[in-house]
Specification:
This protein is 33% helix and 25% strand. With 563 residues, the chain is of the alpha+beta class. The chain has 2 domains: 3-30 and 363-560, no CATH class; 34-62 and 92-355, Beta-galactosidase, Chain A, domain 5.
Length: 563
């Protein structure tokens, strides 16, 4: 294959990648449907409004308690039916606020029933409308429940039981290291359960602890469980639907492998697994809710799908608590944005919910580099420019070799044109003559394609970093670029990028084939049109790369006298 054909195939391949990428980006950053946005507005004073929630929903069936043979001593104790009327008890809502979370806890079940993220508005131009994750609203149901199961009909503090709270409002005080929210449940037989949430400033990790005091006359057997239920909305295969390419559904980690659960397969192939050091959750673009059982315990995981909702649950080992004794149970929750440093600190493998696709091995170190540079300059746009420069320096020698080859090709242009005129009616002879000329002058025309081959995986990896990294969501740069994750509102960056590509072409020799030469001439126009819909951050990366390539090629041409 001649250099010109190889080059055109590479350009066409890149063009196809860009076409697929622009469809993905357009769908991912299209305006969210109204039902997916938070419906409440900010309070008049500018603070986050109290999350709006519907009436408590009747939860699905409880996960089965790990079985042992029934005990005759506990057969006469209160059954679950005796505590079931607690569902009809008056519901009290408890407001919990930290600097980054705005939660509502329902005393029926003692669970978090609504979650707002004040630091993350749904849209940049509506800062008082925060993202809402957990919700009992029927049209966007997303609940994370937990409790204790008991053996042989003993009363249990499950997510149907009614808890009490010393107050209806908890706020993390300035300078405080943590905020504890205690809830209490007491059975008629003397079982006292204290369910405590612990939140910390700046964090989306929530500790969930149970203290069980057995004041009855009989042993009390119980086990902790966690479960998550969410309404599943199948993605519309549309360019303008955010769910088309961004995974929205249940995920699980078994201590070794991260899995996305196919909701449509769950009715016929339910998910069942015994897991140590794992977790499960539900993710959407940039955000997740996850339940993390204690790492040292073996829990039974289950997943199912019915009535348009998926349910993932996990239950731990049962413990027997002697009369006049107590026991503790614990777990962790993560409800918030996919901040990678917090995910890694919360549980092993939780950072895998930031899905970079098949180029994860390249995208993860790229994000690490971006994050560390950002910690120094505190501007994501400047970070992109500096990281692009660093990448260019890493591949400087490769680019220099390519540039020298292109400069050599440029010096041979008069002789190449002469050969084209001589063999204009015999393309095979012309190709043979050109190859002999390349060999004689010790020029490798394929070397000019190497930077293109290198840029393609970096381009795709950079795209996924911008797509999946919530750290760059709605990040400003300068002047009119107020959001690097969305397109340039005035299309200035794409136009500058197109101009840079045009000048870059002028520094390289044109293809000998007139048809290919014309196609190369219109390539900057085509790319400008494509990149007009790309996020400004990605266009900034490509613009910076093109400008640096122009500077390098100009210098090489100057040194070799190939101007």
């Amino acid at each position: 294959m001649t250099t010109d054909n190889l080059r055109i195939f590479l350009w066409v391949g890149l063009l196809m990648l860009v076409w697929l990428t622009v469809q993905t980006w357009t769908t991912t950053f299209a305006p969210k449907p109204v039902t997916a946005a938070a419906s409440n507005t900010g309070a008049p004073d500018g603070t986050a409004a109290t999350p709006a929630t519907a009436a408590p929903l009747a939860p699905p069936s409880l996960p089965a308690l790990p079985g042992t043979s029934p005990s005759a001593a506990t057969a006469a104790l209160t059954t679950l039916a005796d505590v079931a009327p607690a569902v009809a008890a008056p519901s009290t809502r408890i407001q919990v606020r930290t600097d980054v979370l705005d939660l509502v806890i329902d005393t029926v079940g003692g669970n978090i029933v609504a979650t707002l993220l004040p630091a993350y508005p749904v849209h940049k131009d509506e800062p008082d409308v925060p993202v809402e994750l957990l919700s009992t609203k029927p049209e966007r149901l997303f609940v994370l429940q937990g409790g204790l199961r008991a053996a042989d009909g003993q009363p249990e503090a499950n997510h149907l039981a009614t808890f009490t709270s010393p107050t209806t409002s908890f706020t993390l005080a300035p300078g405080a290291s943590e905020l504890k929210v205690p809830l209490t449940w007491t059975s008629p037989t003397g079982i006292v359960v204290t369910k405590t949430y612990t939140l910390r400033p700046g964090g989306y990790e929530i500790d969930l602890d149970y203290t069980v005091q057995n004041n009855s006359a009989l042993p009390y057997e119980t086990a902790e469980y966690l479960q998550m239920q969410r309404l599943f909305t199948p993605p519309n295969q549309s360019m303008f639907d955010v769910e088309t390419y961004s995974f929205n559904g249940p995920v699980a980690y078994d201590g070794n492998k991260y899995s996305k659960l196919d909701v449509e397969d769950l009715p016929t192939t339910p998910f069942t697994q015994t897991v140590v050091q794992g977790w499960f959750g539900a993710i959407q673009h940039h955000f997740l809710a996850a339940a993390i059982p204690p790492a040292a315990e073996s829990w039974i995981y289950n997943g199912s799908f019915a009535d348009g909702k998926f349910l993932v649950s996990a239950i731990g080992p049962r413990q027997s608590i002697a009369p006049a004794s107590s026991a503790q149970f614990s777990a962790k929750l993560f409800i918030g944005p996919k901040l990678q440093d917090q995910l890694e600190a919360t549980a092993p493998g939780l950072e895998l919910t930031v899905d970079y696709g098949r180029l994860t091995l390249l995208a993860q170190p790229m994000f690490w580099l971006l994050d560390n540079v950002h910690n120094l300059v505190h501007n994501w746009g400047l970070t992109i420019i500096l990281v692009t420069l660093l990448i260019k320096l890493v591949f400087y020698k490769l680019s220099e070799t390519s540039g020298r080859s292109m400069a050599g090709m440029r010096k041979l242009q008069p002789r190449m044109k002469a050969l084209q005129e001589r063999y204009k009616d015999d393309r095979q002879a012309m190709s043979t003559a050109l190859m002999e000329l390349y060999k004689k002058e010790k020029i490798n025309p394929a070397a000019g394609c190497l930077p293109m081959l290198v840029q393609i995986p970096f381009f795709i990896a950079f795209y996924w970093v911008l797509l999946e990294s919530v750290e760059m969501r709605q990040a400003p740069f300068a002047l009119w670029i107020t959001d690097l994750s969305s397109k340039d509102p005035f299309f200035i960056l794409p136009l500058l990028m197109g101009a840079a590509m045009f000048f870059q072409q002028k520094l390289n020799p044109p293809p000998p084939d007139p048809v290919q030469a014309k196609m190369m001439q219109i390539m900057p126009i085509v790319f400008t049109g494509f990149f007009a819909f790309f996020p400004a951050g990605l266009v900034l990366y490509w613009l910076t790369n093109s400008v640096l390539s122009i500077a390098q090629q100009w210098r090489i041409n100057k040194v070799l006298g190939a101007d």
